Amino acid sequence: MTMDVQVGDTLVMKKPHPCGEKKWLVLRTGADFRLRCLGCGHEVMIDRFKAEKNIRQILRPEK
What is the pTM of this model? Predict the structure, then answer.
């Protein structure tokens, strides 16, 4: 079963990025996620299964 991750969500990961930030912005979803580090702005494409395994919390923007 897959998590309900949507574009615009902020993901708090288990391990920090080398810049020290644990929060990532979701730019694209599908079989892969495109994520932007909220610390340094680095963007990565990561397999959905690998990303979901490392998510600690999903923060949704207030609408």
Answer: 0.90
